[in-house]
Specification:
- By secondary structure, the protein is α/β, with parallel strands linked by helices.
- It has a single domain, classed as TIM Barrel.
- The protein has 13 helices and 12 strands.
- The strands form 3 sheets. The protein has a 6-stranded parallel sheet with strand order 7-8-9-10-11-12. Strands 1-5-6 form a 3-stranded parallel sheet.
- Helix 3 runs parallel beside helix 4.
- The longest helix is centred in the N-terminal third of the chain and has 21 residues.
- The protein starts with 6 loop residues before the first strand and ends with a helix.
């Protein structure tokens, strides 16, 4: 296979400089790093600690070294989910989101061969979110946005989000949906289940609401990408379709079977096992799967590119996953 530039579409960042600027803009958020050792820290945002937060999350030089080790030519930078800040004041979050987006755009400008960027948005205020998306794409040159799988418990088909969907459609934006504030958290406190099950569960809810709520059908210009292999959605597509055929509830806002909308969605590769990745490719094809690492977190992987290059699939499929489809989502393919 000819060497091609692998583009990791799912990679988070919160640099030292960005943390300092956020603390000046919104000191009540109290963002800080507390070192555990030379490689790991505790990241505290708005009083909530997250650990471990690896050095590559804030140290760009370390990130570049890890990318080289991972055989990743470029990353699509997105904010850390800890800084979604959907439960804070909307005006404050609009300012902090703009600051983060400026910082991501700065890194892209400094390293255009290694980085692309997508924005974070103040989703608790959809009009502000739409305005920031327009600014991020038209002024900063970012390629779209990363948003949470729900906004303060509100599902993504809620009518209040229509201004954002309209803007994203007009801009032909990439919208990467990342789990947060997961459903069933009270039953997922043991064994790290809030991540192991909660994250893919909430992604699945987001897929279902966007599809059955008619958002995907109404706004075909949006390129929706779901991380962690799309949660359980690719494996339950048949159940979604059957339900639409036999029950009235799934047809409330969707006049045609969900297959058409599901057939437009994209998923990343981070499933942590070859059989599951092969199954995803068998279900949806290489034209709807892109490379993703969830860098820098411990639930991510530095083996993301090699997990694709070592698959027993045609070279054209590997090229799709590693480069061609990522470039398509970024509006450059």
């Amino acid at each position: 296979m000819q060497t091609i530039k692998a583009i990791d579409v799912h990679a988070h960042i919160l640099t030292d400089e960005t943390m300092g600027l956020i603390n000046k803009e919104a000191p009540t958020l109290g963002i800080k790093l507390t070192p555990l050792d030379k490689e790991m820290s505790v990241l505290t945002v708005n009083g909530v600690p997250y650990k471990p937060f690896p050095r590559g999350g804030w140290d760009v030089e370390r990130r570049l070294k890890d990318m080289d080790f991972a055989e990743v030519g470029a990353q699509v930078l997105s904010n850390t989910p800890q800084t979604f800040l959907y439960n804070t004041d909307a005006a404050q979050n609009a300012a902090v989101a703009a600051l983060q987006n400026d910082q991501i755009a700065k890194l892209v400008k400094q390293q255009p061969d290694r980085f692309y960027g997508i924005a974070t948005l103040p989703m608790q205020a959809p009009e502000k979110a739409a305005a920031e998306l327009r600014r991020a794409m038209k002024t900063l040159g970012l390629k779209g946005a990363q948003i949470g799988s729900n906004i303060g418990g509100k599902n993504l088909d809620d009518p209040s989000f229509e201004p954002l969907w309209q803007a994203a459609h007009e801009l032909e934006a990439l919208v990467m949906v990342h789990p947060n504030n997961v459903a069933g958290a009270d039953r997922l406190k043991s064994y790290y289940l809030a991540n192991l099950i909660g994250n893919p569960l909430d992604s699945t809810i987001a897929v279902a609401c966007l599809v059955f709520g008619g958002v995907v059908a109404r706004y075909p210009g949006i390129k929706f990408l779901f991380v962690h292999g799309g949660g359980f959605a690719p494996w339950q597509a048949g159940r979604f379709s059957h339900g639409w055929n036999v029950r009235p509830e799934p047809r409330a806002h969707l006049a045609v079977p969900p297959d058409a909308s599901l057939g437009t969605l994209y998923y990343d590769t981070i499933l942590h096992a070859r059989p599951q990745l092969e199954c995803l490719l068998a279900l949806v094809g290489s034209s709807r799967v892109v490379l993703g690492s969830d860098y820098p977190y411990d639930m991510g992987t530095l083996e993301c590119a090699r997990q694709v290059t070592t698959l027993a699939i045609p070279d054209v499929d590997k090229a799709n996953i590693l480069n061609r489809i990522p470039l398509k989502l970024l509006g450059e393919g």
